[in-house]
Structure formats: C-alpha cells, structure tokens
Design brief:
The chain has about 375 residues and is of the alpha/beta class. The protein has 11 helices and 14 strands. The longest helix is centred in the middle third of the chain and has 16 residues, at about 170-185. It binds adenosine-5'-diphosphate (ADP) and magnesium ion. It is a peripheral membrane protein.
Length: about 375
C-alpha cells in the first residue's frame, strides 16, 4: 500500500527504559491514527522509528510501501514530519523557511518560491510571511512547522503532539488545518496527550502506555468502554465526601474517583443533563452542600484511570519538566484485579491536581515546546 503505515513488534530500549515494548500499528492509506498517551509513553520514540530517525532493537515497519530499515531514503522521500523536533529557523522569515525546505528537496528555486507562497496562504501566514519566525506566536509557529512538513506534499505525514502547549483558540485553528489536509487523502499518524484531539482528528486511536498499545478503537468505542460521560462534583465540606460518594454510587456506572485534597468526586454516568438534575436533588436531600457540579466528556485521564488504575497526568507541577519515566505517573498501583494494590491504590491519589474550572476537560498543559 503506497500510503499506509504498518509496524510489527517494535522494541526500543534506552538503558533500562523500554521506550517501545512490542508495538504493532496499522494505519490504512488515507486514514488518521491517533497515538494517544501521557508523557513518557513512547509516542515520540515510535514516530522517530517510523520516520527512520531511530533504529528499533526489534520489529519491522513499512511506511509508504518502504521498509524503514532497508529503504530509509525512500521512506524519507515519502513522508513529512512535523512536531516537537522539526526545525524552524528563528532568524529566517516564514517565507524563507519554506523556500529553504523546498530548495533542500531540490525543487528548484522558482518552484520553491511558488510553493512557499501557496503554503503561507493556506496556513493563513501570508501577512506574517516576511517577518522573522522568532516574532511568531505559538500558534503561528506550529502552522509554519506544519507548512514546512508539507512543502513536498508527502503521501504520509507524522505529527508529534502538534498542539501541545497551544491555547484553545490556536489549537482549534490547527485542528481545522489538519482536517483540511486529511480531507485531501493524506495518511496521518498523529500523537497527542488529549483524547479530545484524537476524537476530533483521528479515525482510530491507539492508547499507549510504557511502550505498549493498551487499547485501540474509535473515540466512541474507547469512551463507551470506559463508561461515557462523567459527573464531577466538588463537595463543600470534606466531612461529607463519604455521603456524596454514597449518593453518586446510585447513579454511577463505575467506580468513583475521589480527590480528597480538592474535595472532588468523579463518577462515570449515562443520562446527560436530566441525570445531573436528579443528582443535585438527591445530594440536596442528603444535605450534601456543593461548591461545583458539572457533566463532562471523558478525558485521557479517565481513559487511563479506567485502563490502568492510575492517572495519566504527569507531575509537571513539580517543575521537573522531563518526560516521565516509569514510576513518574500516578504511582497508585494497578487497581481492579492486579491483587497487588494492597490498599495503597487510593483512586483519588492523583499526582497532578485537576486543572481548575473550564480547563477540567483537558490535561494540564505541559510547557510550551520550544
Ligand atoms: N534518547 C533517549 N535516551 C534515553 N531515554 C529516552 C530517550 N528518548 C526517550 N527516552 C525515554 O523513553 C521513554 C519514552 O519516551 P518518549 O518516546 O519521548 O515518550 P513520549 O513521546 O510519549 O512522551 C521515556 O521514559 C523517555 O524518558
Ligand atoms: Mg513525545
């Protein structure tokens, strides 16, 4: 298949870290696969292997009809890569950056100039095209980065966390650019930490954790599997948490997640706004006073909590800022049947505080990538 991505049994270790621990992937031509996972899951390593930047220790991969190990040059000629590592030269203008890429691909300077102008237009950068890239906002920079990966119209694209660190407006703008691209038939493998993003952009999702694919399916399938929507409440009085959990238990389709320090309780539900009204009445009848209540769609963290019994959010708050290695996530042990949680697996013992207010539907933003 000229535009497909296929990988089997990919393994890559760095010292004692198994960054990829037997990854199989299939992305049919013209479709989008979302590789969804928290920091340190192995997403970038997978992208680097598939784009020939890194040799796997085991396994094989065929990208755009070429084997990454035996025909890396052919693979490179058929792909575009944008994301965390793609280089935009800060001191060149947007236009110069794009022309330079075209010339690197030996397009000829006239063709490179025409292509640069086309891409600036397409990515709404024409007005900023003659300013140095270092004056661009985060969203503009990502668009330039994406444009650079598209100079030669590759049939297969890789995007490594294209919107991480962007504000919601820029994120949605980039989503629409990506959607246009995909509508043109490009095969895309996209990595993300946001279920919402995979939901918007991907036909299929593979959830990765510690170098393995732990679940796959469409966004709807994953959400159904973890029990759909969430009711989230913040109880006013910590002494009433147990009573509130009792009430929510009557509506819940799964286990409650309790975050004691924020007095926040989350349960999977089905039934939408009407159910919310019933929950409020019942809590009121039991004398549980609320500071906040809401219905929200599942996040990556919910998917993770369901699949692994621990939180997906990484401790960025501690300022370490590095990709999480094993043990950096959640750390509350497996729940549900692993038998080794031994009471330590407090479901609410999340490493990172839930983002406040409206941001609750998204994981905490890692620092803006430089
Ligand atoms: N070059 C490297 N040297 C050592 N460890 C690495 C290297 N690249 C990645 N790792 C480790 O491999 C794991 C997966 O990393 P990565 O693929 O970057 O994850 P993600 O992109 O999902 O955040 C992490 O534990 C990370 O620290
Ligand atoms: Mg990464």
């Amino acid at each position: 298949m000229p535009g497909a991505i296929h990988a089997e049994g990919l393994v890559k270790t760095f010292g004692r870290v198994r960054a990829l621990d037997g990854v199989d992937l299939d992305v049919p031509e013209g479709t989008v696969l979302g590789l969804l996972g928290p920091n340190g899951a192995g997403k970038t390593t997978a992208v680097r292997v598939l784009t020939t930047l890194l040799r796997p220790d085991a396994g094989r991969a065929v990208v755009a009809g070429h084997d990454v190990l035996t025909a890396p040059d052919e693979v490179r000629r058929s792909i575009g890569l944008s994301g965390q590592f793609a280089a935009v030269d800060e001191y060149l203008t947007g236009r110069e950056n794009l022309r330079m890429v075209g010339e690197l691909y030996q397009m000829g300077s006239r063709a490179a100039r025409v292509r640069a102008a086309e891409l600036l237009e397409r990515f709404h950068l024409t007005d900023a095209g003659d300013r140095p890239a270092k004056t661009y906002s985060g969203g503009m920079r990502r668009r330039l980065d994406l444009a650079a990966a598209l100079v030669v119209s590759p049939p297969v694209m890789f995007m490594d966390e294209p919107t991480t660190g962007l504000d919601p407006r820029n994120r949605m703008e980039l989503w629409s650019v990506i959607q246009d691209l995909v509508a043109d038939g490009t095969t895309l493998l996209l990595t993300t930490q946001y279920l919402e993003e995979a939901d918007q952009l991907a036909h299929d999702i593979a959830v990765v954790d510690h170098g393995r694919v732990i679940a796959r399916g469409t966004a709807d399938e994953l959400k159904a599997r973890i029990g759909g929507e969430r009711v989230e409440i913040v109880v006013h009085d910590p002494g009433r948490i147990a009573a509130a959990v009792g009430v929510l238990g009557g509506f819940s389709r799964g286990e409650a997640v309790v975050e004691r320090h924020t007095r926040r309780i989350t349960v999977p539900v089905q039934g939408g706004a009407r159910l919310l009204a019933e929950v409020i009445r019942e809590l009121d009848a039991r004398g549980v006073e609320l500071d906040d209540i809401g219905l929200r769609r599942p996040t990556l963290d919910d998917v993770f909590m369901s699949l692994t019994g621990r939180a997906a959010l990484e401790e960025d708050a501690d300022g370490s800022g590095e990709p999480g290695g094993p043990g950096k996530l959640g750390g509350s042990g497996k729940s549900g049947g692993s038998g080794k949680s031994g009471g330590s697996g407090k479901p609410g013992d999340r490493t990172a505080p839930a983002p406040a207010g409206a941001a609750a539907a998204e994981p905490a933003h890692p620092k803006e990538a430089e």
